[in-house]
Design goal:
Layout lengths: L3 H14 L6 E3 L5 H8 L4 E3 L4 E3 L3 E4 L2 E2 L2 E2 L7 E4 L12 E4 L4 E4 L5 E7 L4 E8 L8 E4 L1 E5 L10 E7 L3 E7 L3 E9 L23 E6 L4 E5 L3 E7 L2 E6 L6 E4 L2 E7 L9 E3 L7 E6 L3 E6 L7 E6 L2 E2 L5 E3 L4 E6 L4 E10 L11 E8 L7 H6 L18 E5 L8 E4 L3 E4 L1 H8 L8 E5 L2 E3 L12 E5 L5 E9 L5 E3 L2 E5 L1 E7 L2 E3 L6 E4 L3 E6 L2 E2 L16 E4 L3 E6 L2 E3 L6 E2 L10 E4 L2 E3 L7 E3 L2 E5 L2 E3 L6 E4 L3 E5 L2 E3 L5 E3 L3 H5 L11 E5 L2 E3 L20 E2 L41 H6 L31 H8 L7 E2 L42 E4 L11 E3 L2 E2 L5 E3 L2 E3 L2 E4 L4 E6 L3 E7 L6 E4 L2 E4 L4 E6 ...
Length: 938
């Protein structure tokens, strides 16, 4: 039996034996002792926060007053004598004020003596003249990444491998700034796997045992391949089922956990008799259920019932090989569906009904600062139990209908088009909850207008923190907006969920200026416009600033985004309190998030090969980073100008630092470039304070190296913090990538595998041209939205058809406690497309027609009516008093009998308030009823 602990001990002995060969030089600061030595030596001139050497150097150390400076101890330099003894002519300048060494001129050389072949050299540097490309030429060093032996205008982290035993030379092509030099052993800090070990790679489709080491690295074992695990004090023995040698861990294990394979969702019980609609798939999800079935021969449309209530027809869509229906706004519980085919005459086809039972629905997680602050009100158009708020309006937004959906907005009159309706709410008089449901692909050209020329759709309140009660959500797994994003300003109570944003104009979502209680979850975020350079993937993705507060970002998937989330500018006046949890940062570059000034809780996120850095803290911010899973992420956390940032590439552009509190995080699959410096390792220049428990308070004496701010301990103040249940970090990947995880339902309709192909490194932050091309050419496969007024032309062309849209009422209502009995609360519009009532409230006895003209209702045109003949009746029951409007053909004047009493109007519609109880509409004169609207009585 080979013992892993023995292997590790031998390796550590090797590492310590070569410790003298591993050196790091950080030019971010200069000790007072070095400053005193330079001040006492006439060969050094003091300039503006920098000491400048005025003599020639030939393979010599930097010496002042006869003593080698600790600033660059161990390095040697070659530089010609300056033309005079002034600051500006000096070849070597120690600029402690700007945290760098300055090499002024051509062929100024740094020599790193006595290195061994295979060692790595990492140099952080930048051109000494803004906008002018320069670089470092190297000798005895093979470039690996960065700009060695080439030039660049950008700050670079250059990595090379020592070619042969001996000195390495770094020579300037022209003036350069050098921030740090790091020499590492060729073995680096790669995780150690025993040659006889039975551990395997992480596999989220398998049940696995996860052994977390004291180094926070993780070893994975498929439970099916493990026969037993022996625990004896601090020693753990893993016995493989195949009889091979066991793996023994002696005193180096922090945690042993078992994780189930990622959840694939629970299917309902499908009953599809022979000759009936054949349902192929049906599951409950988060506050919704869905079903897919094979198109039924002879069906013109379908009726779908959820717990015996007919759903809105727009929720049923046709694709090339299947039909899909999604039911939204459901509280947690068990549901059943019935799907029935409908013929061309509007009749349900006998024997076509199929059912699904035992569909399990869960609630979205409402943990986070947004709901903590909104309390019981609910964020957006929905209650906290998942049902629509009382009186809520619902609009179905497709490429056809985005310009023509219409409603009355208090203070603004009739507003037509999605942006016009949102703009109407800016008047501040209408607080009616409103849900905009995107279906299929909606492009910028499909919109009526964008009120933000830089972002796209603008949600703006009348004044700061104005209640909007708006939800923007997708229907199904393919809802996508393309070519625009969203700007929130002065808005409170806005929700975004379950759709994708591709190729936005600037940010996918920008929370700009005094927003509150915004909830962004289960979204897919992709590249913005290719602006080249560090804007190749767009500008920001989800940015928030200017005292936007009490925000929650949860269960979102960021697809290779460059600058994922900027959290704060420098104008904030308060902590604001922001939550990020269960997000999937999938091969992103950075800013996951980057925090300025604010107090932010980052927990249970999956950092999946984040290229530059994960969480960044600057400008006095306080960030609690808890139980996250960092996979292949070299710099999981950084604070500006200290710790890893001070030894690296100046990530935060010279801003002051902040404080990160770290607890319970896992760092797996680390490369040799991994760096995480805790306060416990270096109590002046560190990345994060590693807490011993979740509730540990950081002492006020722990301060940012630059700026001197301390941690505000918001996370241990019960009056400031919300209740939440953090998952174990080891379980985060399976949860976030599982059926109930990050992104859209079913993980959306867009698939992409990040891998090392065609020169693109999956762990790189380079722009992925193939991914960009796939986004540019994305097209929907949606063929038809039932109830939309005919076959859809949504093929990704980016132009609207000008056809009439779907209903503007739809599935409205719900009560404050979720769900209703009898008549739904709120506005209900019943029309007769497909020759059947769109609302199950109404029972029609009589004949339908599509040749009696058309009626315009809320900006939409309908051509199917109920012919009011002597034998016709429309029956309905109200559980409370309602305002009832009956719509006739545009060319007709209203005439109808209500409960036997004749009613007439001078327009093509008639409105009357009816009491609770049963009511009947019958013929007064020859007329045709195209729609009936029920509205709350104010």
């Amino acid at each position: 039996m080979k013992k892993i602990q023995l292997f590790l001990t031998l390796l550590l002995c090797m590492v310590f034996a070569s410790a003298d060969a591993q050196q790091n030089w950080n030019f971010a600061s200069m000790s007072q002792a070095d400053k005193d030595l330079c001040a006492a030596d006439a060969n050094w001139v003091l300039g503006t926060d920098r000491y400048c050497y005025t003599k020639e150097l030939t393979e010599a150390a930097l010496v002042a007053n006869g003593v080698e400076l600790s600033y660059a101890k161990g390095l040697k330099f070659t530089a010609s004598a300056p033309s005079d003894n002034t600051e500006g002519k000096a070849k070597i300048r120690l600029n402690y004020g700007s945290s760098r060494m300055e090499l002024n001129g051509t062929n100024v050389t740094i020599i790193i003596p006595g290195l061994t072949a295979g060692q790595t050299v990492t140099v952080s540097c930048m051109t000494g003249k803004n906008g002018v490309a320069r670089g470092l030429n190297v000798t005895n060093l093979t470039p690996v990444s960065g700009s060695f032996n080439s030039i660049s205008t950008e700050k670079q982290t250059n990595v090379g491998t020592v070619t042969a035993d001996g000195d390495v030379q770094l020579s300037t092509s022209a003036g350069m700034y050098v921030y740090s030099i790091e020499v590492g052993d060729g073995g680096g800090t790669e995780p150690v796997n025993p040659s006889t070990g039975s551990n395997v790679a992480m596999n989220l489709n398998k049940n696995q045992m996860r052994v977390t080491l004291n180094t926070n690295d993780v070893k994975y074992y498929n439970t099916e391949n493990v026969s037993s695990v022996n625990i004896n004090g601090g020693n753990i023995t893993v016995n493989p089922a195949n009889g091979n040698a066991a793996d023994v861990y002696e005193g180096n294990v922090k945690n042993l956990a078992f994780a189930k394979a990622k959840d694939g969702g629970q299917s309902g019980d499908i009953d599809s008799p022979a000759g009936a609609v054949q349902i192929s798939e049906s599951k409950g999800w988060l506050e919704s259920v869905y079903a897919k079935w094979t198109p039924y021969s002879g069906a013109e449309s379908y009726n779908v019932y959820c717990n015996d209530k007919k759903i809105d027809e727009q929720l049923i869509r046709l694709y090339p090989s299947f039909v899909r229906a999604d039911v939204l706004g459901l509280a947690a519980g068990t549901y059943n569906l019935k799907v029935v085919a409908v013929d061309k005459d509007g009749n349900e086809i006998a024997g076509s009904a199929s059912t699904v039972s035992n569909l399990q629905v869960k609630n979205y997680s409402r943990e986070g600062f947004a709901h903590f602050h909104s309390k019981s009100v609910g964020v957006g158009a929905y209650n906290n139990d998942g049902t629509l708020k009382k009186g809520a309006k619902v609009f179905y937004v497709t490429a056809k209908t985005a310009k023509i959906i219409s409603t009355e907005v208090k203070g603004a009159g009739t507003c037509t088009g999605i942006q016009a309706i949102i703009d109407g709410y800016q008047k501040g008089q209408d607080k009616t909850p409103i849900a905009f449901r995107f279906i299929g692909l909606v492009k910028k050209d499909n919109l009526d207008n964008v009120s933000s020329s830089s972002e796209g759709l603008q949600i703006k309140g009348k004044s700061e923190y104005s209640e909007m009660n708006m939800t923007f959500e997708g229907v199904g797994d393919d809802a996508t907006v393309h070519g625009f994003g969203f700007l929130c300003r002065y808005a409170k109570g806005v929700e975004f969920r379950n759709f994708a944003i591709m190729r936005c104009m600037d940010d996918c979502i920008s929370l700009d200026t005094r927003n509150a209680e915004i909830w962004i979850h289960n979204m897919d975020f992709f590249y913005g416009p290719n602006g080249g350079g560090d804007h190749a993937k767009g500008d920001g993705t989800v940015d928030l600033k200017d005292d936007s507060q009490y925000l929650t970002f949860s269960y979102n998937r960021f697809w290779d985004t460059g600058k994922s989330s900027l959290c704060g500018m420098k104008s904030e006046t308060q902590p604001n309190y922001i939550t990020y949890h269960h997000n999937w940062f999938d091969h992103c570059d950075s800013r996951c998030p980057r925090v300025r000034t604010m107090s932010v809780h980052v927990w249970n996120n999956y950092f999946d090969y984040v290229a530059k850095y994960g969480v960044g803290s600057t400008t006095g911010s306080s960030v609690f980073v808890e139980n996250n899973y960092f996979r292949g992420t070299n710099r999981p956390m950084m604070s500006s100008q200290q710790g890893t940032d001070a030894t690296g590439d100046g990530t935060f552009s010279g801003e002051k630092g902040g404080i990160i509190k770290s607890f319970g995080n896992v760092f797996a699959e680390n490369s040799k470039y991994f760096s995480f410096i805790t306060y416990q390792k270096n109590n002046t220049s560190f990345d994060a304070y590693e807490a011993s428990s979740r509730d540990e308070q950081i002492p006020a004496s722990v301060k940012a190296l630059v700026g001197g701010t301390s941690y505000d301990n918001f996370d241990t103040n019960s009056s400031l913090m919300y209740s939440y249940a953090a998952d174990a970090a080891e379980d985060v990947p399976a949860i976030v990538t599982g059926f109930y995880g990050a992104g859209r339902i079913n993980h959306g309709d867009f698939t992409w595998i990040f891998e090392d192909i065609d020169g693109h490194n999956s762990a790189s932050y380079a722009y992925d041209t193939k991914l960009g091309s796939a986004l540019d050419n994305y097209k929907t496969t949606l063929v038809k939205v039932y109830g939309e007024g005919g076959s859809s032309t949504e093929t990704g062309s980016g132009s609207g058809s000008g056809e009439t849209g779907g209903e503007t009422g739809g599935e409205t209502g719900g009560t404050e406690t979720g769900g209703s009995t009898g008549t739904p609360e709120g506005t209900v519009l019943c029309t007769f497309t497909g020759k059947t009532p769109s609302s199950s409230i109404f029972t029609v006895t009589g004949n339908y027609s599509t040749s009696k003209g058309t009626a315009t209702i809320d900006g939409n045109v309908y051509d199917t009516c109920v012919k009011m003949e002597s034998s016709t009746s429309i029956d309905f029951t109200l559980s409370e008093s309602k305002k009832v409007t009956i719509y006739f053909a545009d060319t007709e004047t209203a005439s109808i009998k209500i409960d036997g009493t004749k009613k007439k109007g001078s327009e093509s519609s008639y409105t009357e308030t009816l009491a609770a109880g049963a009511h009947k509409l019958t013929k007064a004169d020859s007329r045709n009823v195209f729609g009936i609207k029920l509205e709350p009585v104010e």
